[in-house]
Amino acid sequence: MMTNEKRKFKHALLKTRKTKDHINGNVGKVNFALQPKRSFKSKCIECIVHTSNLQDLLKDLVIFVNGKRHTVTASEVTPETTLNTYLRNTLQLKGTKFMCLEGGCGACIVSINRCNPVTGKLETFAVNSCLVSIFSCFGWDIWTIEGLGNSTSSTPHTEHPEKIQWHPVRVLHPWHDNEHVWPQKSLGEVTMKQVENSFGGNICRCTGYRSILSAFKCLCVDATTNLTGRYPDIEDVGKQCDNMCAIKLSMPFYFKLGTKSWIKVMEFDDLVQIVKSFHGSGSSYMLIAGNTGKGVYKMENDLDVYVDIVNVKELVRCDVNKNHVSLGAGAGTLGGNLMMKNKWKNFPSDVFLFLETVGAQVIVVDINNLEHTMTLLEFLQVDMTDKILKKIVMPALDESHFYNSYKIMPRAQNAHALVNAGFLLKMDVKYTVKSVRIVYGCINQSLHMQILSEELVPDFELPDPKPQFRKNLAIALLYKYILSITPTKHISKNHVSGGNILHRPVSIGTQDFDTNKALYPLSQPIPKIEAVYQTTGEAEYITDMPDLPNQLFAAFVLAKATPSSKILKIKKEKSDGIVKRALALGGVVAFFDKYDIPGKNTFTPKDVFLSVEEELFYHSQPVGIIVATSHETAEKAADLGKKKPVLTIRDILERGITDKLTHDRIVEPKRQGKNVKYTVKGTFDVSWQYHFHMETQCCNVVPKEDGLDMYPSSQWMDLSQNAAAAVLNIPANKINVVVRRLGGAFGAKIIRNSLVSSATALAAYKLKKPVKMWLPLETNMRVIGKRHPLFGNYEAGVDEHGVIQGLENTFYYDHGCSENEQVTDLLFDTYFGTYESDTWYTNSNLAHTDMHPSCFMRAPGSVEGLAMCEAIMEHIAMSINMDPLEFRIINMSKKRGVLLKHVREFKKWANVEERESLEEKGLSVVPMVFPLAIIFNYGVIISIYHSDGSVALSHGGVEIGQGINTKALQVCAYKLGIPMEKISVKPSNNLVAANSSMTGASFTSEGVCWGVIKACDILLERLKPIRATMENPTWEELIQKCHDESVHLTATSMASPKDPELKLYDIYGVCASEIELDVLTGQHQVLRVDLLEDVGDSMSPEIDIGQVEGAFIMGQGYFTSEQIVTGEEGEVLTNRTWNYKPPGAKDIPINFHVKFPRNNPNPVGVLKSKAVGEPPFCLSVSIPLAIRQAVASVREEVDKNASKWYPFDGPSTVENTFMNCQHDYRHYTL
Description:
This protein is 26% helix and 22% strand. The protein is α+β, with helices and mostly antiparallel strands and 1230 residues long.
């Protein structure tokens, strides 16, 4: 029997196409032609698609991936199946990653060749595979990272990564490389600026972008000599496949997929009839083009019908004449953007703003194929149900029109507007204004400044910027526009620059370090040993592991209740119970909560380092887990749906909740200064920062005969093992932990991952089946803690020479609802590290808000301590009108002669004294002392194989991208005197490195390398007697002889804080940051950063350079753009890439210079080196201090009596900077 839906669709097609084809079975069979499209003359059998077997073609999808044809059986996928899912789960192309699942991180990007529906020519572009339905891909030629080749192929990309500096930290690893898969197009016309612009959709948390950009810039036509001299010729790149397969679709078709349908439309009239056929039917449908809208607004319900309109020529055609420009609404999916604005009026559409500003109109077609022309404002009021947005018509503008628009964003690229504005003015030859159009996004529209001030009443909904900021910014943008179109001769000198926007040239960077060839491979600048595997997609991460038979997936059930709420009961049995409804969902296998735990309900069993046993399932966080046959089903089933919570330190202080405070310690001054001329008071307030690791928290657990094999994304294998054993009440030797690598961590996976791994282990143990669990980004940001917030209140007395006579500081550290992961000791190290502090009084306290437990994060405690201290120094210097660097030198500790030497070297190298602090620019120089000691244990095992002398090593650290395996290999090769190629680093596991400590705090690489040295010394000592009996043997001959003589060729060792060779030392650093400020917008750009860090004799300079750059940019985000906003009930509102903004590629310093001092060995360091991973983060406080230097001149100009300084109150965002410029529209004059 033919369903009503089929009849309607058949009638709609027959009415317009007059075809004799019929609809039968699962597939609609209509006139359908497939024409292969190529841009090369050579023939490819894979490209030929026969049109005779139409029935088979319409039951299947045809796509091409990396030059090979693939047939997708339509009945085995759904419209919700994304290209990302198909590539990873079906084709097992795991090089294409996923993270945010909303198109905001760039992990999922692939390259596409497709036939343009209008021109028929091949076009190449990038898509977010996590957003694109597999059905949209019919006929596409798709290229993933695997298409670049593999570790054994001979291409410039894979054969010579060292020439392209592929991977100082994690350069071009699969999370970042996919957008730039270029094997199928010539790069001859690509410029360095285009490369930088193309990274807008990619977030990198580890490298700081500079090294990635340099790698790609080497392929550009305008590559600078310092790049072209080191890299392969552009002609050698991308010649793997001369045959590009892209199918040209010319006729409509559709698929019947159970209760759903996918329709491909080619003609606009067909589209109208299809929409008409569903009018009043009750069927839900959507017109699909780019489908990026679901990255902004999640789809609430599944649809009945999906109508693919990408190939409708009328919707993508562009017509230009002397009167107007007419664009098909599907061109660039402009129509989709406008339809989002129609449905969600608060959507900050730049497209709408531009079109409304220039006076564009739209043409809407109803189900009777009647066209309705209307303005954009009229369009917003139209109910677009069963209507089609067909065209956008823009009027021609002559030279009497003056147009400009502004988009003020939290970062340089890939962010929606805080406020956007468009201005169009028409003037005659006498400069008389004839007409004006002013359009604001995210705010109301008006014309005159006085009227704007009185009438603008912005609405407010968190996490949007505050209304007063948006109102004042709207007025400032109008003033900026007026300045931009006014002849310079009519503007005062002080106001001319106000009409300009920040101009960013192509960024550059230099790296200055020394090596010792006599020690190679030690100190040799090499890429990470995993670089090739990561850049080809061969490196396996935890979520890349293939599914096993009977594979199950788990998801946390979160308590959607306010912090401090108490969960009394979870309904399991009653008919109205949440769990009962979840278990009724197809594919759901089980639900577990705390009553199902055989052992302890904790993922932090007490030990020396963990003082509190935190519950595995508890209030305001996970209350249980759902287990299902797919991740998607588990997440769907887990989506369950008081007293006022305490959310911040200031909440506690203002409400006087003393039981939420714990006194930590008081440091009394050793003496009292007596000559106080100036008194300076202030506050310092910094908040959370999210780790933003590209691999979210995850774990795989597989039941085995000897227990459980666990693959956690953990920085602490020992905790993963012991926590799971405690939860399951089984011996620890039943838990087998293996960790090859993590996709980023930054401290979040030291303790917090055991929450995920213990829950996964519980499900696998109870069900006796393999279980996977990974947290979606929003869950990850809600459940997992963030950097510790800190609030300080200080008062300082200074004499006439700028010497501090006394400093009283009372501060509070927010630990959230737990006391684990305390960082106060680390704060004291940097807070007291640089300056004379014998007159300082310090009162340290711990605050316990109702928020998630605060969490270790790169440079925990250290960055807050140094930032608070340096903010105080900058504040005092500014208040007494003293040069900030000179003030710091005067107050520097007499014990810091080494630091003073570095400061003097730095001033000369960075030309500090020659760089004037010009108006609207700010410069800040920050010194640093970062104490460090190796305080943990790390096991190491090294085995030598007699057959060929090859070596394998494993250790108790975890490779997170910091290059620990590379350094361990270099040290091993150096000690044994063999080539690096003979050594293989194996995954870390809890058998060969039992009881090893956490990886973090910068010292793990050193600790592991020390363990490698000890193990090598043991082996060399065993080899020594045999070597003495041989005459100049080769390594292979020596090892074989030792084997013959029964010499034990495996050695174990452990780096320990009790080793007398491992001593405390200080890491020194100096950094100067220079910024340029746009006063009228609050935006800034970092013009230049010069960073000197004392790394001793670096074991691996390029690895260390990458660590420095990545840490600094991560700190830049903490201090400028990464703002966590919570609702009144404690919910994290900035929990997506849509509203949480780490720095992008065009936020990094335009000039970024890093130097390691030469001839600078560390006498107590491992092989004379120093740790490097965290100290540079601390130096990034120089950026918000430079912003304050630039703002100071503005504040002084606005009000001579106002303080030039303004306090730290979270990150120095655009909003924070703008509001502290003290704008008053009455000062907006020519």
